[in-house]
Amino acid sequence: MSVNLLLVDDEVVDLEWLRRRVLESGLNVRVAGTAHSGFQALKLMEYEPIDLILSDIRMPIMTGTEFARKAKTIHPKVKIVFISGHEDFGYAKEAIEINASGYLLKPVEDQELFRILTEQVAKIEQELEQDRSFTETLSLVNEELLLRWFEERTSAPATSHVSSVLAHYLEKGTSVALVEIDDLEWKMRNLPPEEQRAETRKITRTIKTFASDIRLGTVIEGQGNRFAILAAVPESRFNSLLKELVEHVNRSTSRTVTIGVGRYASNETELHESFRQALAALGAKWLLGKNRIIQGAIDAHPQNTPGKCMEEKVNRMLEAILDYDLVTIDDCLMELLQQDVTLTGKEGVYALIIRMTSKLHADLQQRKENLYELLEWESRQPDVLFQFETVHDILSWLRRGFFELSEMLYIKGQRQMRKLIEEIMRYVENNLEKKITLKEVAAHLDFTANYLGQLFKEETGTHFSDYLIGLKTDRVCELLKDPTKKIYEIADQMGYKNIIYFNRKFKQAMGMTPGEYRKKHKI
Fold it and tell me: Measured between alpha carbons, how far is 304 from 292 in angstroms, rounded to an integer?
């Protein structure tokens, strides 16, 4: 691992000279950045892990020593070497006070620059090796003990062994972050076990390698799809690096991670609480979404009981499903799962969904339908419901399921209505020569006359009475074409007992009497 070097000088020529000399040194040094002012250098340090700084001590607005003090607050272990002229001895005294690692006089000679670089790089490499050895020792010996201590419900005093491990982190302040791989179980449930293990190992390597490369802190593997990270950098730097970790996993694997972060701690009690805060924050993924960082202690499960307003929304949504009103279905789901129920946590959402589906099932049973058969759910509480990690996942799943259900019911209803219309038409055709009324047809098919009449008009665009008159008229016209049949015989055959009424109805339909019809057609 290279030593990261930052060069700071307000003189462009001097800055470029330094950069070239460092690159020609042959040392294990990476120029992580160059800056023309202390402000620019501090900004860069928020995004790059810096081990060593070469800085001019006399710069406008923010002097080198002022910059150094601020740099030390970002990274207490950073080593700083100042560069100045002979006349800047007053600055040199300040450099001594802030424990500078070295001092170079202008004009800087190559030999002196290489000497101090070699000396500082050796010290930094030794410290990095010590940190690496400490991390390896922790991973081999103490991870399980540390996790057990964190997972205790109360902040009991740590054992002397755990305390010695924590002292390394608490010396400069640290925090706990919990990393969770999103959707790992249910999205891989159909993969063979070996492929599942290979996928998990790949993501684990990605997290550990990247965390090591950016010097984020110590990564401790927990159970299943979680990792704990003990921060090895200041708070502002820790948060920005965690964001980089989230983006890196998303970019380099087929998965995403969500991270819950606790507050920074300076003692064991605070650190134990930091773990609880990270755990609570990660639990809020259910409400806030995944593939992100969630800060601080968030109560993901406050007590709140859905009231009458929710019941009304459920009823409105169920009506929308039966009416094939997809817009209203979506509106109701959004209101239910993003406004009312989000305050009740997973248990409240599960209870709501079971209540919704139970009520819908009961409503459908009255229509001789079965919700669970239509949606092909294996039980009244499908296993998939409990595998979702966020309320947004459940919202998408419900939207898809209810849209599909509404469409199936609509198509099925259309077929049933078409079949009913065909039965009405068939009955009328078979009984056309009798006196038929809508009430009689409705009674035969076990419906009310009003419902049947309204349905017939909606499906055919024609009133039942107009349809019946049209059919009877067509039949009368066919009979009139037979010259052997008398008009009164035809009227009697078609169920008309009054010949005058028969003539009037025929004229209303055809614009002429039956006799005029025969004359016109020369029958």
Answer: 26
What pLDDT does 141 receive? 53
Distance between CA atoms of 57 and 232, rounded to whole angstroms?
A: 28
CB-CB contact of 174 with 230 (8 Å): yes
pLDDT for the residue 299: 41
What pLDDT, on a 0 to 100 scale, did the predictor assign at position 142? 66
Among 95, 89, 32, 90, which Cα is nearest to 66's?
A: 95
DSSP state of 75: -
221's enclosing H/E stretch is strand 217-221
Can you read off the two tokens belonging to residue 522? Answer: 């020369």
Burial of 108 (0-12, 13-18, 19+ CB in 10 A): middle
Of 7, 37, 17, 12, the C-alpha closest to 107 is 17
The predicted-structure confidence for 252-299, as pLDDT tens digits, reads as follows 988 899 999 999 999 999 999 999 899 888 877 876 788 999 986 444
Strands 226-231 and 176-181: antiparallel
| Cβ neighbour number for residue 117 with a 10 Å cutoff | 22
- For 403, other C-beta atoms within 10 Å of its C-beta total 16
Give the distance between the most distant pair of CA atoms in the chain.
137
**For the purposes of burial, counting CB atoms within 10 Å of the CB of 288, is it exposed (0-12), middle (13-18) or buried (19 or more)?**
middle
Q: Where are the alpha helices (DSSP H) in 171-307?
A: 184-187, 193-213, 235-252, 268-283, 285-288
β-bridge mates for residue 95, sequence order: none
Q: DSSP 3-state assignment of 521?
A: coil
CA distances from 340 to 75, 313, 328, 335 (A): 45, 10, 17, 7
Positions in the chain short of pLDDT 70: 1, 86-97, 131-142, 155-156, 161, 224, 287, 296-310, 338-348, 351, 377-386
Instruction: Look at residue 216 and give its three-state secondary structure.
Output: coil
Question: Nearest-5° angle of CA 2, CA 230, CA 213?
Answer: 20
pLDDT digits (tens, 9 = 90+) for 412-453: 878 878 888 988 999 888 888 888 889 988 888 888 888 888
What is the SS3 assignment for 295-309?
ECCCCCCCCCCCCHH
- Whole-structure pTM value: 0.52
Q: 184-199: string of b/e by CB count within 10 Å (b at 16+)?
A: beeebeeeeeeeeeeb
pLDDT in tens, 460-514: 889 998 898 889 899 899 999 998 889 998 988 888 888 998 899 899 889 999 9
Rounded to an integer, what distance in angstroms lies between the CA atom of residue 512 and that of residue 103? 121
